[in-house]
Every structure is written in structure tokens, then in C-alpha cells.
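Run log, item B.
One chain of 353 residues. Sequence copied directly from the ordering sheet:
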Amino acid sequence: MALELTVEQCDLEDSLRGSLAKTAPGDNVWDSLREMGLTEIPFPESYGGAGFTLKDTAVVMSELGRSLGSSPYFPSVVLAGLTLLHAGSETACAQHLPSIADGTSVAALVTGYPFESSDVTAVDDGHDVLVLDGAQEAVIAGASADLLVVIAGGADGPELVVVDAEATGITRTVRESLDLTRELARIEFDGVRAQRAGRGDLSDRLARAQAMSITALAAEQVGAARACLEMSVAYAIERQQFGRAIGSFQAIKHRLTDMLVAIELAEAAVLDASGADTRSDSEFIVAAATARVLASRAATYAAEESIQVHGGIGFTWEHPLHHYFRRAKTSELLFGDTRVHAETVGRALVAGT
């Protein structure tokens, strides 16, 4: 597995980085992403997409993590879009994916973790219509989405439906979040009727969509960690103490070096996972979990250490570092914490011995 980007992917990275260079955390970059055609990247041409790979998607997610620009790219394109692509029926994909791919519809994925677990139930009324009841917390972009891609617990396993977010019986409530740049909501369903959108036994399909999603999230975490390191290096060169740059002090050098090592390791794991979607499900799932563990640790560590390098200014509201710290802590808990994913890797190691 080549742990590097292609020439085209490097060009994509440079182009997006240049476009987002002046973006502050929380700035809306959705229109720019749509104009550049980036919302089309992971979808087949038959559904209005560009037919690119997960690694291309990871490049976009990394640059979004670096800038912390606000957009529904992760919830709509990655979470909802890829789940529908891999687990949805041909009819459901043809109906909904083109508008998700061109960004005219914003979708949110309503599910727990793992994806096939959910606090929402689905009961078949006998005519292939599912009746949804229950509530799900921490739905990213749930309050602002146009479409809800819902994974619900059915009598014979997980069910997949796509429903208009304004449908009768749906209540959406924005939740207060530590991360001020990412919207989380509680979605309640009270007798909501929707057509079944899944195909066949969904367990394996959802596991693959889940691995793609956590790989993309890991890429975003690495991008954010890299931004923290770059801010720290720039500040260490600029800031003077006792007549010399603080970067010349051994303690600061050690902090920066440890940040770099953690980030490089996480980035290699993300590159491996984002190229592993062509391998077997079991290999891909382990690669994604590995990337998630290392990226979560790198993002949190980089944010914490960067604040220490910056000293007092790093704690201020005006400095962007608090946004990176908030994103690191909340992302660490999204879709399974580090312990959960480490257990996935551990089980695979034991099974292979």
C-alpha cells in the first residue's frame, strides 16, 4: 500500500489549501466546495458524482480540518451520502444521491455507534412502509439538513430509510456543543412513515460505510493537528523571551518534535486506511480503526501542546486555538472513542495469532 498521494491528489490538496487559506474557524465554505465540485468526489458518475476515491475524499477532509471552515461536507457527503451509496437500494440512490452530490440537498445521518445500532425503531406496516419512533442524539447537521438518512432498528435487523427532514412527526432540537463550529442536534420521531431505502442484509454494508466515515473523520483530525503544529512552529520562531526565540529552548523543541511524530504516524495510518477500501472488509475495518485511534490521539495532543507553546495567548477567546481544542475533544468522542477503536484493533490482532 503506497502511503502517499498521487500527483492529482497533491494538486487537489494545494488547490483547496489555497482556497481556504484565509478561512477562519466557523467561516462558511460550503458554496466554495460546491463550486469546486468537491461534493461530487466520492459518488459514481451514474449518480451525478465524479467517481473518485476515498483517498480523494480524505484529502478534502484533511484540508477542512486544517481550516475548520464550516460546511455540511462531513455529515452530508461522507456520513449520509456514503451510507446511502453502500447500503441504499438503487431506487433510493437514484432519487437522492444526485442532489447530495451537487450540494443542492444537505443530508444528515441519524444513527448510533456502531452504525447498525440505533435508538430509533422501525416497524413495517405490511406495505413496505416503515413507521419510525424514538430519538437519536448528537446528529451532525441534524437541525439544518434537508434530508435525513436514518438507520433504525427493525424486527430482523437494521433498516435504512430516507425521509424529508420537515416530515410530520419529526422534531429537531439544536444541542449545545463544546465545538462551536459543528452543529449537533437531537432528532425525535413520532410515528413517521417512510419507504424502506435499504437493500438486503445491511450489516456488512453498514460496517463498510462506517469504516469509510471514521477514516474521513481521522483525516480531518490529522489536518487539524497539522494546523496546530504549524501555528506552534510559527509562534516559536516569532516569540522572543530572554533575548531569543522561544523555539531555541530545548523544552519547546521537544514539544514540537513530539507533536510532529504523533501527526506523521497518524497521517500514515490515514493514508493506509483511505487506500484500504479496495481490500477485504475485515482489513479495511482494522485499518480504519487504527487510523481513528492514532488521529484522535494526535489531534488532542497537538491542540493541548500548541496551547502550551503559545502560553497565555493560547487561552484567549480571540486566538483560534480554542476552536481546534474544542474540535479535537468532540471529534474524539464521535462514533466511538479511542478505547472502542483500540478494542477493534486488539480483537483483530488476537484473531490473527
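Observations after the first pass:
- The chain has ten helices and nine strands.
- Strands lie at 107-110, 120-124, 129-140, 147-154, 157-164, 170-175, 184-195, 240-241, 244-245.
Flagged for discussion on Thursday.
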